């Protein structure tokens, strides 16, 4: 059996867990479905704007939980928020910058991309990881950092009850619309959007994110059918909000079913505790769907989980040596 602990999913959670394992001298490898690591964290530059198609905002007060910096004061700016008075910050360079301190220390060959895990099983005292391409890997321990629906499928035969519960989690869909305007076209401050249909609305005219005298708007729209063309999404949004069709940049990022509703339920922590107790020792489950709703919670959860796995591996090797 390989001695590398496998982390499934190279989003922020998986990368933060891998970083912690490596810090504790536990060899590990990440398996990622897509061609790039980062999961929903994705930033790009266009026409002088810095756009985040995934998460943009987080609570700086809890930035001790961000991936290891250094994160100097100048790396952040305060965001205008229409989410109910929370003091939110964003990174000047875009949220994807959070990934760099996690990616840099990864040894060559530790990140395996374009590989989908289909199912998990036992292999001796450890685990077998079956990939959709037919490969089977083995590992002494597993960090499962994929969303609940994917993790539910992977656990189908290893932990049928946990798998079924995860596949049962309720989801919403969020379409993130990002629009860049000349400042004169948008009255500031941007008023809160109507309650229904909007998951969030942020705006900024910070010079790190927009050209001079411009403004960047980010809205999350709920429950929008996936087949509505991007141009129509923008037209309707502009009509609803009273914004002109004079935007300079526009992005419509669809994340079908990303927003797991369970963590918002009061019974979720208890339910997760019960599910975790059914997991075999040496396997841990991390990510937003499992009770870490904010970005900074996710990093802390990943570090704690990796620490627990590292301690468990040390105890196992102690037992074997005796
Ligand atoms: C549109 C959108 C906006 C958001 N905005 C915010 C925000 O403003 N603030 C905030 O705090 N959070 C926000 N979130 C939540 C966001 O998901 C998290 O902040 C964080 O990036 C999640 O990291 P993660 O690693 O837990 O999950 P993900 O980023 O989803 O990573 C999971 C990884 O697992 C991989 N994977 C899935 N299936 C498999 C498989 N079978 N085999 C191998 N790999 C697999 C995926 O490809 C992905 O890379 C937003 C999410 C979305 C989608």
Separate helix tally: 7
Q: What class, by secondary structure content?
A: alpha/beta
Average pLDDT level: 88
Q: Report, as a whole number of angstroms, the end-to-end distance.
A: 20 Å
Global geometry: elongated
- Strand arrangement within the widest β-sheet reads 8-2-1-12-17
CATH architecture descriptor of the largest domain: 3-Layer(bba) Sandwich
- CATH fold assignment of the largest domain: FAD/NAD(P)-binding domain
- Number of DSSP strands? 17
How many strands, which pairing sense, and closed or not: the largest β-sheet?
Answer: 5 strands, parallel
Q: Bound small molecules, which ones?
A: flavin-adenine dinucleotide
Please identify the top-level CATH class of the largest domain. Alpha Beta
Cα gyration radius (Å): 21 Å
Strand content: 25-35%
Helix content: 10-25%
Which H/E pattern describes the elements? EHEEEEEEHEEEEEHHEEEHEHEH
CATH-defined superfamily of the largest domain: FAD/NAD(P)-binding domain
The figure for the number of domains is: 2
* Spans of at least 5 consecutive residues with low confidence: none
How do the strands and helices of this protein lay out in sequence?
Blueprint lengths: L4 E4 L3 H12 L4 E4 L11 E4 L2 E4 L23 E3 L1 E2 L7 E3 L8 H4 L7 E2 L4 E7 L2 E6 L4 E4 L2 E3 L3 H7 L5 H8 L3 E12 L15 E7 L9 E9 L7 H12 L7 E12 L7 H10 L5 E3 L9 H27 L1
Parallel strand pairs: 1-2, 1-12, 2-8, 12-17
Antiparallel strand pairs: 3-4, 5-7, 6-14, 9-10, 10-11, 13-15, 13-16, 14-15
Helix pairs in contact: 1-7, 3-4
The structure holds flavin-adenine dinucleotide (FAD).
């Amino acid at each position: 059996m390989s001695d590398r602990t496998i982390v499934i999913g190279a989003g922020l959670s998986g990368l933060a867990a891998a970083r912690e394992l490596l810090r504790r001298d536990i060899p590990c490898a990440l398996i990622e479905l897509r061609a790039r690591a980062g999961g929903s964290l994705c930033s790009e530059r266009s026409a002088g704007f810095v756009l985040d198609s995934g998460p943009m905002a987080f609570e700086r007060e809890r930035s001790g939980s961000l991936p290891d910096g250094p994160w100097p004061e100048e790396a952040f700016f305060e965001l205008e928020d229409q989410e109910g008075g929370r003091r939110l910050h964003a990174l000047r360079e875009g949220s994807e910058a959070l990934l760099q301190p996690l990616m840099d220390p990864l040894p060559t060959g530790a990140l395996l991309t374009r590989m989908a895990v289909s199912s998990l099983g036992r292999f001796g005292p450890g685990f077998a990881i079956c990939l959709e391409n037919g490969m089977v890997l083995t590992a002494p321990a597993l960090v499962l950092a994929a969303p609940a629906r994917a993790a539910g499928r992977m656990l189908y035969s290893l932990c049928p009850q946990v798998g079924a519960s995860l596949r049962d989690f309720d989801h919403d869909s969020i379409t993130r619309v990002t629009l860049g305007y000349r400042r004169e076209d948008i009255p500031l401050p941007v008023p809160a959007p109507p309650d229904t249909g909007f998951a969030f609305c942020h705006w900024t005219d910070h010079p790190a994110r927009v050209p001079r005298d411009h403004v960047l708007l980010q809205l999350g729209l709920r429950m929008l059918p996936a087949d509505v063309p991007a141009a129509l999404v923008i037209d309707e949004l502009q009509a609803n909000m009273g914004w002109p069709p004079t935007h300079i940049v526009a992005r419509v990022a669809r994340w079908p079913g990303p927003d797991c509703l369970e963590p918002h339920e009061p019974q979720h922590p208890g339910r997760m505790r019960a599910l975790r107790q059914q997991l075999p020792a040496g396997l841990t489950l991390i990510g937003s769907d499992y009770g870490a709703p904010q970005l900074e919670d996710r990093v802390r959860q990943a570090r704690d989980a990796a620490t627990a796995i590292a301690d468990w591996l040390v105890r196992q090797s102690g037992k074997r040596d005796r």
